[in-house]
């Protein structure tokens, strides 16, 4: 059983996948975020996400590897 998602607060109405991966500490750079997305290693609300620029909103759940975060 996986751990519950860790909450990550955002300031505005939305954030892009690449930005969230960096903000949450799941990656250290934009290049690392791009690689994860291109490898199909990122899921948004349970579905593989191939667009680093996809807009995310509060309540969305993002998985990268074994870590999961929820936007609040």
Task: Please describe the topology of this protein.
Elements: E1 6-8, E2 14-16, H1 17-23, H2 30-38, E3 42-44, E4 47-48, E5 55-57, E6 61-64, E7 67-71
Parallel strand pairs: 1-7
Antiparallel strand pairs: 2-5, 3-4, 3-6, 6-7
Helix pairs in contact: 1-2
Description of the structure:
With 72 residues, the protein is α+β, with helices and mostly antiparallel strands. It has a single domain (6-71), classed as Structural Genomics Hypothetical 15.5 Kd Protein In mrcA-pckA Intergenic Region, Chain A. Helices cover 22% and strands 32% of the residues. The protein has helices at 17-23, 30-38, and strands at residues 6-8, 14-16, 42-44, 47-48, 55-57, 61-64, 67-71. A five-stranded mixed beta sheet has the order 1-7-6-3-4, covered by helices on one side. Strands 2-5 form a two-stranded antiparallel sheet. α1 (17-23) packs across α2 (30-38). The longest helix is centred in the middle third of the chain and has 9 residues, at 30-38.
Give a brief rundown of this model.
This protein has 72 residues and is of the alpha+beta class.
Secondary-structure class: alpha+beta
Helicity, as a percent range:
10-25%
Number of discrete domains = 1
Task: Give the H and E element order.
Answer: EEHHEEEEE
Q: How far apart lie the N and C ends? A: 23 Å
Please tell me how large the radius of gyration is.
11 Å
Beta-strand level of the residues, as a percent range?
25-35%
**Coarse morphology:** globular
CATH architecture: Roll
Query: Which spans of ≥5 residues are poorly predicted at pLDDT below 50?
Result: none
CATH class label: Alpha Beta
């Amino acid at each position: 059983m996986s751990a519950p998602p860790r909450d990550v607060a955002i300031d505005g109405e939305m954030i892009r996948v690449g930005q969230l991966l960096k903000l949450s500490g799941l990656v250290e750079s934009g290049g690392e975020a791009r690689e994860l997305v291109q490898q199909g290693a990122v899921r948004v609300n349970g579905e593989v996400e191939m667009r680093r620029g996809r807009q995310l909103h509060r309540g969305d759940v993002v998985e990268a590897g074994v870590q999961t975060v929820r936007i609040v």
